[in-house]
Amino acid sequence: MKDRMDWVVLYLNRATKDLYRVMGEEAPPELRLLFLDAGGPDEIREKLPQADAILIADAALTAEMILRASRLKMVQHQGVGYERIDVKALAKAGVPLALCPAGTAEAVGEHTVLLMLAALKRLVAAHASMVAGQWLMWELRPSTRDLHGKTVGLIGFGRTGRAVAKRLRGFDVRLIVNDPYITLSEREKAEFGVTLVEKDALLREADIVSLHVPLTEETRHLIAGPELQRMKREAVLINVSRGGVTDQDALYEALRERRILGAGLDVYSPEPLPAGHPLTRLDNVVLTPHVAAGTLDAFRAKMRFALGNIARFKGGEEPLERAPTPSARVPGT
After folding, report:
1. Catalytic positions, written as ranges
2. What is the model's pLDDT at position 5?
C-alpha cells in the first residue's frame, strides 16, 4: 500500500533563497522541504530525526548522522560524486542511495570546454591585463594556443566524458579516451569520434588531458608527479571531477616550473580552496569554485529529477539511478 502521508525532505546543504524557491517550484506536492538555517552541527542534529529523505550535494553524511535520522527511508544525491557519504552505513540501515545525472553532464561538458579554451587562450591573464590598463596584444601571443587540431585525452568516458566529446566534435580535434571499465562498439567509436588508448599513451600524446572519473581509492592521485612528467610540456590539464583525483601539490609544482603549459581547475582538495593558496598566485591556471554543474538551468534539472525520484520511491517504485553497492567498481562519471 502506498504511503499517502507527506514526506519531509531535509536538504543537507545550505543554499540561497533563490535556489530554495526553485526547489519549492520543482517539489511534488507530497514532499515537504526542510532547509537548514545556519547549518551548524546542533541544527543538523535537531533536524535529522525529522527527515524521511535526505537530499544532499557535497555535505558529509556519516554513520552517526544516519543512525540519528531514525525516520530515514532514502538518500538522494543531487549529483553523482558521493565519496563523502557513508555508503556502508546506509546499506546496513537498508536505506537506498540514488544519484542524479540530470543536468550534470550537459553543464559539466560545457564548463570543461570553457576551461580548455580559457587555459589555452590565457583568458584570465588577458582580462586582468585589460583591467590594469595594459594592452598585451603581442605579449600574450607566444603563450596562447588554439584548440583546433589538438589531441584531447579524456580519462573516464561516462556521462560527462561523453558530453565533452560531443561538444568537441566541431573543433576538429583528435579525441583519445582511457577508461578501463568500458567497451565501445565500432558504431559508438564513430559516433563520438574517439579512439581507446592506454593511460600512458594518452598522457604522452594528449595536448589536453581532461579528467572525468569519480574519486575512489583507485582514482585518488590518479594524476601525480610521475603522470605529470609523462605529459607534454605544452599540455594543459583539466579537472572537473574531484580535487583528490590529482596530487594538488605535485600539480602546483609542475605549473610553477612550467613543466606543463597550464591547467583549468574546478575542484580542489580541500574545498573551499583556502584564501591565498599557492595555486591562486600562478598565471598559467584558470580556477573556478566547483561550479561546473552549478548553473541555474542545471540546478533546476537536478531538482526536478531528484525530488521526482524521491516521490517515485515514496509511491512504492524502485528509485532511478540507484548507487552501486560499496564493493562495486565504478566507471567514469
Report:
1. 242, 271, 290
2. 81
Burial zone of 138 (CB within 10 Å; 0-12 exposed, 13-18 middle, 19+ buried): exposed
> If pLDDT is split at 50, 70 and 90, which confidence band does 333 have?
low
C-alpha cell at 155: 580519462
Specify the long-range contacts of residues 110-113, CB closer than 8 Å, at least 24 apart: 110/167, 111/240, 111/266, 111/288, 111/291, 111/292, 111/293, 112/160, 112/164, 112/167, 112/210, 112/212, 112/238, 112/240, 112/292, 113/164, 113/167, 113/168
Read off the CATH number of the domain in which 206 is found.
Answer: 3.40.50.720
Q: Are 80 and 214 in contact (CB under 8 A)?
A: yes
Please state the rounded mean pLDDT for residues 124-147: 96
Q: Are residues 256 and 277 in the same domain?
A: yes
Largest CA distance in the chain: 72
Residue 330 has pLDDT above 60, yes or no: no
146 falls within a domain: yes
Rounded-to-integer distance, Cα 167 and Cα 282, Å: 28
Q: Is the pTM of this model over 0.85?
A: yes
The span from the CA of 53 to the CA of 76, in Å, is 7
What average pLDDT does range 218-244 have in this prediction? 97
